UniProtKB/TrEMBL annotation:
This is VWFA domain-containing protein. Residues 93-272 form the VWFA domain. InterPro entries: DUF58, VWF_A, vWFA_dom_sf. PANTHER family: BLL2464 PROTEIN, DUF58 DOMAIN-CONTAINING PROTEIN.
Length: 309
């Protein structure tokens, strides 16, 4: 069941909104070469391998052939120069790992983190399909991780976006049915089954529930694939400890927090800081580019800014 057409676009997304992201999916790319100001240039450029090459045939050397393609073993054995012929792979698998857990159902002045994550996923999915690559996904919440095998078609993108909308519109204020760590484990369990090698894996999350086991699973993904992290946070998460008073609401009920609840604010702020520090440490360790996404600025503008356009 999905919610009515009268939903607040800052709290929930819908298929129409994500479908229209197709027309904003321009001015950025995840494949090399990258613009000079892109987050993916410099020390990260070698991690983004492009589509790669497939071996086609071995043939005699022709004047003008690139000497770097010479096969010296065959040349020595036959006494005649031979070269290897390669063709560029026409398609590459890109996987979107989209977080729609209860912890993403949060926003202060802009949109919910869950909505922003959905928009980022839609923008990338449309861009990937337009670039003739295949896109797959794992959409996960507190209880399940739904895998969708990669394909290249507009209808397939709509299938992915529809699953995101379903999970997004199921979100509500309350206690998650499963722990954050367990939900991450389910995500990576599906990723191990779905993602093979030489793919681009884009994790869109706020990172809560990330632990040592998650790091091992990230390490495994990085061995044979390119991994990029889109880290979604809300400005309030960074500034909570400095606020003297605030009011939280789910649209029906309100909760006022003052300086008297300093311990609660400090603990929340520490959780955010620990999450940021953990991501920074792991990203640096495994050379994972981190695209920082906030809930205030338009998602398409943030992608263009991060990727140099």
């Amino acid at each position: 069941m999905t919610k009515s057409n009268s939903i607040d676009a800052q709290i929930y997304t819908d298929l129409k909104s994500l479908r229209l992201m197709k027309y904003k999916a321009t001015g950025f790319d995840f494949l090399p070469p990258q613009p000079v100001n892109s987050l993916l240039t410099g020390r990260h450029v070698s991690k983004l391998r492009g589509r790669g090459l497939n071996f086609e045939e071995m043939r005699h050397y022709h004047i003008g052939d690139d000497i770097r393609t010479m096969d010296w073993k065959v040349t020595m054995r036959t006494g005649k120069p031979h070269v290897k012929i390669f063709s560029e792979e026409r398609e590459r698998n890109v996987y979107l790992l989209v977080d729609q857990r209860t912890n993403m159902f949060f926003g202060s002045t802009g949109k919910m983190k869950s909505v922003v994550a959905a928009e980022i996923a839609a923008l990338i999915a449309w861009k990937v399909t337009d670039s003739t690559d295949r896109v797959g996904a794992i959409i996960y919440n507190d209880t399940v991780a739904v895998p969708i095998a990669p394909q290249r078609s507009a209808n397939h993108v709509l299938k992915i976006l529809n699953e995101i909308v379903i999970k997004n519109q199921q979100l509500k204020v309350g206690i998650a049915e499963d722990s954050q760590g367990n939900s991450f484990s389910k995500l990576f369990h599906q990723a191990k089954r779905l993602v093979k090698h030489d793919a681009l894996v884009i994790l869109i999350t706020d990172g809560y529930g990330y632990n040592e086991q998650s790091e091992e699973q990230i390490k495994t993904l990085c061995k044979h694939n390119d991994v990029v992290l889109c880290h979604v946070t809300d400005p309030l998460e960074h500034n909570l400890a400095e606020l003297d008073k605030m009011v939280l609401s789910d649209g029906e009920m309100q909760l006022a927090i003052t300086g008297k609840q300093a311990q609660l604010k400090d603990r929340f702020a520490k959780d955010v800081t620990d999450t940021l520090d953990n991501f920074a440490r792991v990203a640096k360790k495994y050379r994972i580019p981190v695209i920082k996404i906030n809930t205030v600025q338009p998602a398409d503008q943030q992608l263009r800014k991060a990727l140099g356009a």
